[in-house]
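Feature request disguised as a bug report, sorry. It would help if multi-protein outputs had a clear separator. Right now it looks like this:
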Amino acid sequence: MTFLVEAKATPHSDEVRIENVIDDELPRLASLTASTKQLDVRLVRGLLVGTSLLSESEYYCYMAELELE
């Protein structure tokens, strides 16, 4: 299996904001994953990770995984 991974981060403590950024990026990741699938004989999954820094020692992580068949 092959993973196509992209990460986004923000210093803002708004959890909803990073979720919206990740949701907005999903169509682009789907396109990239579909293109990559044609180049690799293994199963290709797209993984989008968003991190919002809440404080110096706390963070919020939002992940979206995409598998095209």
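(second protein starts here, but nothing in the output says so)
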Amino acid sequence: MGIILLGYAFFSKPKRTGISNFPGIFQYHLIIPRQCFLIPAYSQGDERLGTIYSFFEIVPFGYFFLSATLFLIGIYIAPAVVEKEVTFLLWYPRKMRRFMEKLLARKLPIVFIFLLIFTLNNLSLFSSFIAGFIVIGPFLSAFLTGLNVAIVSYEMMGWQGVWQILVNPVAWLEFPAAWLSFAMGIKLAVVTLSGGWNSAVQEFELLLPYYLKLVVLLLFVAGILETALIRIMERFQPPDDHDNNNTSS
């Protein structure tokens, strides 16, 4: 859910900006005992345990590539969806944008902004991960997430907004985090189809530590960076008309 806030955070007009999107849950990595991250497929002495190297030994790189491809396809077709007013695809990103505009007009504390980013994005990516239990879920999530991000950006700045998504430094952290989550969801879907529910539950337990160590870390760093950028952007905002009137009176 929170991932679609990327476009709004960086492409809204200065007077209406004040948000970002992707939080992280790095504190979970700090407070969860090391034993929680032990992966049955590897010995405790394996230094690669829970790292990106061992991740691609469990989840084929092709799943990651497929996730990124579906995501980018969603970005690519978003302008056509906006131009043709495909209502059922526009409803969710537009609703989220209006919600965030109202919420962030209140000049929220920086900690609250980070927590908002943190919560929404982890809910979004974790739900995409566990959507593998219903098989088709992670494929749809990958496509729709890219679509929603680009719809918000395109409606604000046209194609310029879409292209700027790809050079946004926050996106360099958030998008790989999303693709990792979708790839884990696809692996879960494959196991669900081939081995049934019990095998899928075992696979989920195997993959969960990777979500906590890789995805959460990326989202945490991205959330800090995005929150900092929001505060920097707010310093350069021109005073609104209401403030000017109060000052003059």
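Even a blank line would do. Unrelated, but nice: The chain has a mean pLDDT of 79.
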